[in-house]
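Q: What would this complex look like in 3D?
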Amino acid sequence: AQKITQTQPGMFVQEKEAVTLDCTYDTSDPSYGLFWYKQPSSGEMIFLIYQGSYDQQNATEGRYSLNFQKARKSANLVISASQLGDSAMYFCAMRTEGFQKLVFGTGTRLLVSP
Amino acid sequence: EPEVTQTPSHQVTQMGQEVILRCVPISNHLYFYWYRQILGQKVEFLVSFYNNEISEKSEIFDDQFSVERPDGSNFTLKIRSTKLEDSAMYFCASSEIPAGMNTEAFFGQGTRLTVV
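A: Here is my prediction, written as structure tokens for the whole assembly.
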């Protein structure tokens, strides 16, 4: 069975600082993809970054990077230089080969303060 | 920038009534999905749809639910005989190619369904 665990219900960070949001996953499938989505208070789901299980390097997209540790089954999201607009809910999700569905974690609410 | 559009943004319905949630996927996308998010909980997969057929569905997607692509642009989720526990945010998503390892699914802004 596929499972995503996000153990931080809430995180606080000051503007311009970096923050790490934790995500661990469980799957027996060797081929999978890991995704991070941002959900602002308006409700939409915004794709941030993707990491494939066979990717040799950690994914980066602007201020977002993914700290992928395959042996530990973790895929933590790092947001550098936090901005007030980063305040939102963040979801980690996984898709395994042969399946259409994304399996989501319970999310982490990030609050960025001035 | 192309986007997935969902209507209505909020729907209130009485228990036992039928509701239809509508989605307009991105125009060149061929694969469509519905997810739901009960308030304060995680996002859950309901169903994926391709070529006028359900390609994958979850345990949640029972006989109460159905999906349809009635024309070339719309994709709908019908919930028959709604229950209080159907109250949730429902997200439509679409992708250009099959949801493979690195295929981004584009999500709509969601429809908040409230069953009273």
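A: To summarize the key features: Chain A has a mean pLDDT of 94. The longest strand of chain A covers residues 88-96.
Q: Very helpful, thank you.
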